[in-house]
Design brief:
By secondary structure, the protein is an alpha/beta fold. The chain has ten helices and 13 strands. It has a four-stranded parallel beta sheet with strand order 2-12-11-10. α5 runs parallel beside α6. The longest helix is centred in the middle third of the chain and has 21 residues.
Length: 264
């Protein structure tokens, strides 16, 4: 009888499509008495299919959360840092409570600081402005966790050491969708969990002698990918990752199904 392996599934968030005005208006009528806008809608829309598909570690949010972060940090105007940075946490706290009400234990995905595309006109020093922005991120992420989210996924376009040093930890995971050998090494300097595409397993294995890897999230694998990974890592070190640019329930169901394989 063939032995089966079942791996846990982990979401890196999703990017739901912008709804038609009528759909958003109809949803808004169900939100009387609550703070509700397009970002609130997208948070729910991306999370509900994951909940229905029974993803083990769901994650609301995605890079669309960029505007919410910008409006939650004071001292910013029209994409420029014009004053000393601070936070206005009310919106993100409300988002956290909303996510918790839909699926308790969910994380929230958002863009890393460098993806806010801010230009400094106040600090006059790149390191100082970066440190100030990361400080406000820490405060906002903490406010969201205090309001009920399990943790955060920070989407990034590059592995920025200053951001990783300031923010990476047990509750904050940096996700780089297209890492190369150098950026993967930078990520592994600061976190022992790594998300990779199926074709990057050889690159990851080349780093194992230098960096400790506690867990691998392999994105959208097939059965052969998981079997190959199982030759190099223990089953409890492997998880199946997903990130969907849409709200397709079938994607998440297929991801959960793919996490069970038979070993001949």
């Amino acid at each position: 009888m063939a032995k089966k392996l079942v791996f846990q599934t982990v979401s890196m968030g999703s990017e739901p499509p912008i709804p038609e005005a009528g759909e958003l208006s109809e949803w808004g009528r169900t939100q009387r008495g609550r703070q509700a806008d397009l970002t609130s809608f997208l948070l729910e829309e991306g999370l509900l299919p994951q909940k229905e598909a029974e993803v083990d570690f769901p994650c609301s949010g995605g890079t669309f959360y960029r505007e919410r972060m910008r409006e939650s940090i004071s001292g910013i105007k029209d994409g420029y840092i014009t004053h000393e940075l601070g936070i206005m946490p009310e919106f993100v706290e409300d988002d956290a409570a909303r996510v918790r009400s839909v699926s308790g234990g969910s994380r929230v995905a958002l863009p890393a600081p460098h993806l806010l595309d801010l230009t400094d006109r106040y600090y006059g020093d790149v390191d100082e402005s970066s440190a100030a922005l990361c400080q406000q991120y820490r405060r906002l992420l903490r406010a969201m966790r205090d309001a009920g989210v399990a943790g955060h996924v920070l989407h990034c376009a590059d592995a920025v050491p200053e951001e990783l040093e300031s923010l990476a930890g047990k509750k904050v995971f940096f996700f780089l969708e297209e890492p190369d050998k150098e950026s993967m090494a930078t990520l592994l300097e600061y976190q022992r969990v790594i998300a990779i595409r199926r074709d990057l397993l050889p690159v990851l294995l080349s780093h194992r002698e230098e960096y400790e890897v506690e867990q691998v999230l392999i994105m959208d694998p097939d059965a052969m990918d998981l079997k190959n990974l199982n030759h190099s890592f223990d089953p409890d070190q492997i998880r199946v990752g997903g990130y969907w640019k849409g709200n397709n329930l079938e994607y998440w169901r297929d991801l959960v199904d793919s996490a069970t394989i038979s070993l001949q």
